[in-house]
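Assemble and predict.
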Amino acid sequence: MSPEEIIRQREQNSDIPFEGIDQDIKAATAAAKEASQPLIASVGYKAISLEDLPSEGKFYPRNSEISIRSAQNQEIRHYSTIEESDPYDVNDKIGIVVEKSAKLKVGPTQASWKDVTTEDRMFLFFAIRDLTFPEPEQQISMNLGCNRSCMGTPGSWNEKVVINNQEFGYYELPENLMKWYSEEERCLKFEHPVLGGTFRLYAPTVGVTKVLNDYTRRLMQENKAIDKSFYKVAPYIIKDWRGLDENKIMHEHQENLKWGTDKLATVEALVDKFKFGMKTDVTRKCGKCGVEVSAPITFPGGFKSLFVVSSAIGDLLGE
Ligand SMILES: [Zn+2]
């Protein structure tokens, strides 16, 4: 299919909100080249069922496909330079693993990894890890213990919990929020006369979040004031990372400043509820007293240890 045909098909098929996915001709040309080879058949790629994602695929165009492969040496080497103490760097390095090893496709078109929602990205990151290191001895685990004096013996119960995608809890999209979900527009579409009619909230994507993070990071370095209210809601009100630059951010900010306090407070509260990502705690029932025990998920050895093959160094040094 030629780029022109793809564009014509996009225009005809109003079911697919293509405008949010890919508009430039270059992408269409690349897609035309690849259209004859189904994505899933690509060597080493494994399809991810969209329903398994934290987003359940609800915020991607209907005919989206996501697939992953195991991380290659080059990405692992790059990842191993991660600076644990710098959250921006941790975020970037996680992003690179997902960028290199995950593919998003909409119909015949190769979309960008930047269209993946931030919450799904973490899921994909751990799915890629499981695929890269399938051996049980490379699983990451943590200890969870009961601190109560259960059955008269304090701290006597503890369990080794393997940390992987099956183990993470994920927030479910709240029903009272999802009643505003627009199947057609793949976002939340609210109506309220007092708040000025219709407004939309989008699931934050990797691309939008990255542009905003880079910008606020620069503001901080320059000791400039940051409007926290705006940057809290910005990833949810800006639909697309394409064309998002400093001017566009400033324009969105100006629009946001015109909101009444009612609308700002409402949107901030909605954004707090619009969570479907990973829970950062792991929970178990104590095997002795039955009480629920939970602890924040930690990775022994930090984020770095997630993509470093540690068994060889263990063998050599007996650690
Ligand atoms: Zn107990």
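The chain has three domains: 3-132, 136-170+278-317, 175-273.
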